[in-house]
Amino acid sequence: MKVLITGATGLIGSEIVKLSHERGIDVHYLTTSKNKISDKDNYRGFYWDPEKEQIDVSCLEGVDAIINLAGASVAKRWTGPYKEKIRSSRIQSVRTLREAIDQSKNHNIKSFVSASAIGIYPDSLTEYYEVDEKRIDDSFLGRLTSEWEAAVDELSGSDISVAKVRVGLVLSSDGGALSQMVKPIKYYAGAVFGNGEQWQSWIHIRDLAEIFLYITEKKMTGVFNGVAPNPVTHEKLIKEIASQLNRPLFLPNIPRSMLKLVLGEMSSLLFSSQRVSCKRLENFGFHFQYPNIKGALENILSEEKELNYKPL
Fold first, then answer.
1. Would the pTM of this model clear 0.70, i.e. be above it?
2. Sign of CA dihedral 77, 188, 248, 182
3. Transmembrane region positions (predicted)?
């Protein structure tokens, strides 16, 4: 099997590449940097520029499936121009891939699996969202994700199975949101954001990589929530991280108004609450290696724990 991955050098993409190679799956990948192009037997890079709708169509040669992870980071201040970059990087990537598929008459692609985000679900402290939820959050992220998924759906109706994975809070030792949570806690400056009641539907990076390949290999279609079975509140997550690092939490909660002043509209990432179900994945036979937050953090923070930090 050979898979084409966009965003292959990012946090999620790197894990999927690693898992693919463990399973003997060859990887083609697309990059906007010619300096990042590699040409190995099982890992071959190709240049593209979605903003200009440019792509090396030979990237599709021998490819059985596409995993699309392309998109500018949302973890930067949301100025007007940057919000447009976040949007266009996702929409144009999908459209450029679709046009490449249309141009390649002899392609062998059977599956197209795209990342999406649980930010599409309305902010709520009480709802428990399944994939059939029709309401969309009235926010930049909600509208963006809806448009992103609509672009992916344009590939439907062909012989290619199309799936979308709504990704939650990704926990990894190699970066992402968790590393930003760990730093202040490690140095005795950890605190809960707001009242801490907001739900965080998280996923261990290994399980998320497994989900993408599982859906790809089985040619599954439709929407899937890329989250673990047991969401936790923000307060629970922060306390569990502190417990794993053997650190106290003695600072007061950080008010939402303060973070909005510092981060602007992007602060909504810290306070949005989506409790999301992964039942559809489980019904298709997927099994999580890390279903509970304690076990996931024990695995990810094991190196930190080995340093034997002690509270003051």
1. yes
2. positive
3. none
User: Is residue 94 within 8 Å of residue 148, measured between CB atoms?
Assistant: yes
pLDDT in tens, 37-75: 999 989 999 999 999 999 999 999 999 999 999 999 999
Cross-strand pairs, 254: 193
Structure-token pair, residue 221: 């279609």
Residue 202 in contact with residue 237, Cβ under 8 Å? yes
Residue with tokens 């490449």: 100
Do 90 and 151 contact (CB within 8 A), yes or no?
yes
Domains (range + CATH), the chain:
2-168+202-227+277-288 (3.40.50.720)
**Token pair for 300:** 């990810």
Averaged pLDDT for residues 21-40: 95
- 149 has pLDDT over 60: yes
Helix (H, G, I), strand (E, B) or coil at 48: strand
CB 30 within 8 A of CB 187: no
CA nearest neighbour of 73 among 117, 124, 30 = 117
The structure tokens 């930090």 sit at 309
pLDDT tens digit sequence for 222-278: 999 999 999 999 999 999 999 999 999 999 999 999 999 999 999 999 999 999 999
Residues 6+ apart with CB under 8 A from 225: 118, 129, 131, 165, 166, 168, 201, 276, 277, 278, 280, 281
200 has which bridge partners?
232
Cβ-defined contacts of 247-252 (< 8 Å, 24+): 247/185, 247/186, 247/188, 247/190, 247/309, 247/311, 248/188, 248/311, 248/312, 249/185, 249/190, 249/191, 249/192, 250/188, 251/189, 251/190, 251/191, 252/191
Residue 79 neighbours by CB distance under 10 Å: 12
Question: Whole-angstrom Cα distance, residue 312 to residue 307?
Answer: 15
Distance of CA 261 to the CA centre of its chain: 27
